[in-house]
Specification:
The chain is of the alpha/beta class. The chain is built from 14 helices and 17 strands.
Length: 498
């Protein structure tokens, strides 16, 4: 059979098996990979925007390499085993169905497993033709002629300094696995400013050179220097605008434009909050409750309590015990209607023990806002509070659920993901009472990665925004509704236009 170039190999697969042509950006990747391979370059980094098809192309590249050199041993490393197995499965499918690789499938089923396979090859070798491993797996004793690192950097492997250091240590083990002159191919997008893909050293990490110094690089952002989409058939101007709006500037820059965003560039501008002054209006129509805000019908609610004991505010030391309530409209707008610091005494006398006092304050807010459920962060001292809060809610006659919620995502990342896209899209509204709380100062002073200033309010609001919202009208309502809802309904003229 006539030898196929890699772009031809890809074109045959796409035409014969997928019934489609090859997009220009994938042709560019294919030409680059073959050129680098034939030139003897064995340290490569391929960066392309999310959903560009780069991992699928890498699976085709693995099949093409095995067709050229059947004795090659390929190791696929990914953030976890399931992701690595996905590439192995894709390569197996190509070998089974591509016209140029039909004779490579082995006769024995035991050589065609989910996480490894061995093709028909001239030599008897201990290691399989292709093997999948998670980046945290033990690689001792393995040998490979090519290592494909497919999305080894993801939030779960790089969202803390400890994880980033561990990832670099794990990847350094490749040198002990790779045969002399073997191929290292990294494929991915940056998920942190301290990315392994960064093209400049980070002085604060005392790096003398980037982690992948000396690697030949191909970088294909979604929007090129000419302002055009790299894949206009799929990523139209409208689709790009929608992605920007949904993901926010920081994530769009890193995942679509391949630019690691420095923590110092991340800001939460409170001027982007859209203020309103209306109050909740509760009615029952046809036996169903309807909650609205300034004429906007609300469809969901989320309430988050991040508890703490002791004095806590922006002016005083200690953590703040903060509860935040957010409502949602059908069109995606979010309304931060209340945020309250529970351990700011403000001269008030204590009402029983501290835990019960705070639970009563939360119950009062739940009753006023008709919140159907409240999530309590159970990290640390919050472990025993859900039980106390349930007792207080029952005593107050409020049939609201208490959800125990443990936070595993780093706080800075949780805050940025909750606020960034909504602020950029102008879809986060805040009641005028919010502007008189420490939250506004926290937004102005927030610096990811730096522990200067408080962020307790930000953390509570981020928790509420990140919750799976409880649909209004579908769950239990407070048994004892506030008096202000009884009798004839009165809607104040607020001039609020959400």
């Amino acid at each position: 059979m006539i030898a196929l170039t890699f772009p031809e190999f890809v074109a045959v697969w796409n035409a014969a098996r997928q019934g489609q042509g090859t997009p220009d950006h994938l042709n560019r990747m294919a030409r680059w990979l073959e050129a680098r391979w034939r030139a003897g370059d064995r340290q490569l980094l391929l960066m392309a925007f999310r959903n560009s098809g780069k991992s699928t192309l890498a699976a085709l590249f693995a099949a093409w390499l095995l067709r050229l050199h059947p004795d090659l041993r390929l190791l696929v490393l990914a953030a976890d085993l399931a992701l690595a197995q996905k590439m192995v499965r894709n390569t197996k499918r190509v070998i089974e169905r591509h016209p140029a690789t039909r004779g490579l499938k082995p006769a024995r089923p035991d050589q065609w497993a989910a996480d490894r396979f061995t093709i028909r090859r001239p030599s008897e070798l201990r290691d399989p033709s292709m093997l999948a491993r998670g980046v945290s797996a033990n690689l001792t004793g393995s040998r490979a002629d090519a290592v494909i690192c497919d999305d080894v950097e993801v939030p779960n492997t790089c969202d803390t300094a400890v994880k980033r250091a561990d990832l670099r240590a794990r990847l350094a083990e490749i040198d002990y696995v790779l045969t002399p002159g073997g191929l290292q191919l990294y494929i991915g997008t940056p998920h942190t400013y301290y990315s392994i893909y960064a093209d400049e050293p980070r002085a604060e990490l005392e790096e003398a050179a980037p982690f992948l110094a000396g690697f030949r690089r191909l970088k294909i952002p979604l929007i090129g220097a000419d302002g055009r989409s790299a894949w206009p058939e799929r990523f139209t101007d409208g689709a790009i605008a929608r992605i920007r709006r949904q993901t926010g500037p920081a994530k769009f820059s890193s995942q679509m434009q391949l630019e690691p965003v420095a923590a110092s560039q991340c800001r939460l501008d409170p001027d982007r909050l859209r203020a309103y002054g209306g109050e909740l209006d509760y009615r029952e129509s046809g036996g169903r409750p309807v909650l609205s805000l300034g004429g906007v019908v609300l469809v969901s609610a989320a309430c988050w309590w991040d508890p703490a004991f002791g004095a806590g505010s922006s002016a005083a030391g200690g953590d703040g015990s903060v509860v935040a309530a957010v409502f949602g409209a059908a069109d995606g707008r979010s309304f931060l209607h209340r945020i309250q610091w529970l351990n700011r005494r403000d001269g008030a006398a204590a009402d029983g023990d501290e835990a019960t006092r705070q639970c009563r304050l939360v119950a009062r807010l739940v009753g006023e806002l008709l919140v159907p459920a409240v999530a309590v962060e159970t990290n640390g001292l919050g472990r025993f509070l859900p039980g106390v809060l349930r007792q207080v809610l029952a005593a107050e006659g409020l049939a609201a659920s208490v959800i125990e919620q443990a936070s595993h995502t780093p706080k800075d990342r949780r805050i940025l993901e909750a606020f960034d896209a909504r602020l950029a899209a102008g879809s986060l509204f805040a009641h005028r009472s919010v502007f008189a709380t420490p939250l506004i100062g926290e937004m102005r002073e927030w610096r990811p990665g730096q522990n200067a200033g408080h962020d307790d309010g930000l953390d509570a609001v981020a928790g509420a925004l990140s919750l799976e919202p409880v649909r209004l009208g579908s769950g239990p309502r407070p048994a004892a509704r506030p008096d202000w809802r009884g009798g004839a309904t009165h809607i104040a003229a607020t001039g609020f236009e959400p």
